[in-house]
Each structure stands twice: as structure tokens, then as C-alpha cells.
Amino acid sequence: MTGNIAIFWPMIVQAFLTLGIYGLVFNRRKAAVKAGEANFGTFRVPTNEPAKSAAAVRNLSNQYELPVLFYVVCLSLYVTNGADWLAVVLAWIFVVLRLVHAYVHLGSNDLRLRIPVFFGGVIAVFLLWVILAIHIAKGSILSAVGGPF
Predict the structure, then answer these.
(1) What is the distance between the terminal CA atoms of the chain, rounded to a whole angstrom?
(2) CB-facing half-sphere around the CA of 101: CA atoms within 13 A
């Protein structure tokens, strides 16, 4: 039995977001060099990186923190056939919140907006892990009594 492949679409969008931010980092660093705000050596150990490119680099790092838990839980839900409609909806909620978070972080960087959006993503990933735990627990109980998983 195969899992619900719909769980892969939010993962694909999240991956494209991360890849897009790589391009943004490159463009912002290139612009900083052209504007005379930095030279190529500035980026070797970017302790004095201009604010715009530093924000892009920090956002890129963000794409490898919480999203790692997102990718793992989505793959786990798929493999265990637990990617039901609720899991897919929560995965989309997470990705939309990550898109909003990146937009705010790379734009106004207003913490009053960014923090609640970030924690909304944390809650979405937490709920995905709860769904996985419940799904695994149900499977364990059914296996123990001889039912199908």
C-alpha cells in the first residue's frame, strides 16, 4: 500500500523556497559589492556583512532548521500511510507560514509579524508529529491484537 502523494507538494514548495533564497543571497551579496558596502572577502567569514544580505543568509539558515523536522515527518507519514487529509492540510499551512515568514524576514523584518508567523509554523509541525505518533500508536495496537497496520 502506498501513502498519499499529496504530502509531497508542500515539501516541493518548501524546497523551491529554499532554493530561491540561495539566489536571493547571491543577488544581495553581488549588489552589496557593486554598491561598495562589501568586497568579496567580506563573505569569507561574514561578521560584517551588510544588513540586507545578512538577513537573506539568516533566512536561508532558517530553511534548514524547523523545515528539517517538517521534511522528516512528511516522509514518515507517507511511508507509514499516515498522510491523511489533515496531515496534508497542516503541511500546506506550514509551507504558507514559511513563505510569509520569508517575505517578512526578507522585507520589513518586523518582529511583531515574524515571530507569530514563525510560531504558527512550529505549531503546525508539532501537530504533524502528533498525527504521526497517533498513527504509529494505532498501528502498534492493531498489530498487537492481530489487525492490519
Answers:
(1) 10
(2) 25
Q: Is residue 149 part of a domain?
A: no
Which is higher by pLDDT, 131 or 143? 131
d(CA 123, CA 42): 37
Please tell me whether residue 149 adopts helix, strand or coil conformation. Answer: coil
Length of the chain, please?
149
pTM for the whole structure: 0.88
Residue 19 inside a domain? The answer is: yes
Question: Per-residue DSSP letters for 14-47?
Answer: HHHHHHHHHHHHHHHHHHHHHTTS--GGGGTS-T
User: Does the structure show a pLDDT above 80 at 141?
Assistant: no
Question: CA 76, CA 69: separation in Å to the nearest integer?
Answer: 10
